[in-house]
Amino acid sequence: AQSVTQLDSQVPVFEEAPVELRCNYSSSVSVYLFWYVQYPNQGLQLLLKYLSGSTLVESINGFEAEFNKSQTSFHLRKPSVHISDTAEYFCAVYNTDKLIFGTGTRLQVFP
Amino acid sequence: KAGVTQTPRYLIKTRGQQVTLSCSPISGHRSVSWYQQTPGQGLQFLFEYFSETQRNKGNFPGRFSGRQFSNSRSEMNVSTLELGDSALYLCASSLRGSGASYNEQFFGPGTRLTVL
Known about the structure:
Number of strands of chain B: 11
Distance between the termini of chain A: 41 Å
Radius of gyration of chain B: 14 Å
Strand content of chain A: over 45%
Order of helices and strands of chain B: EEEEEEEEEEE
Helix content of chain A: under 10%
Structural class of chain A: mainly beta
Mean pLDDT of chain A: 91
Oligomer: heterodimer
Number of helices of chain B: 0
Shape of chain A: globular
């Protein structure tokens, strides 16, 4: 069965610093990978996705993630975070019409 | 287009009661999936409905059930509520049936259920 591992439950960082949120998946078949963001008291918003093609995918608000098949990873990065990036981030893999989520990483950005 | 809507947004029930949550998908979307989010178990898939039929089911007891109507709106029901059912219940809709191997899921804001 496919699974997703997010090693860091919390990541504190100062504003304008770079950040990396780690995600590893287990799968022996083609994968579709996603990062979702959840702000307090809200649902999930799709941040970015990897379906095929270029292994580096970018979001409109400066986040990027790189699909690494050999390391089965899909880490999320941002070179300079903002206070408004404070949220919970979920990595997910799509399998037989459902999403399998990691346990989430809470990104806390301090001024 | 309006997004996925869920009602009610907040709900408080007591143990032993039953509850019904509602989800209206994005117009034109025919698939509705339900997920449970708890601090302990994270986000877990409950079930998916497409064209009024359950197409996929997660590992939850039979107390959790759902249905979908001809207009694609979906309801989920939890009977004999337990304290551990306290969670955020998220609904997601997708086009599905398009022949694609991937159908993007759009999430609603969720219903926060508290069981006392």
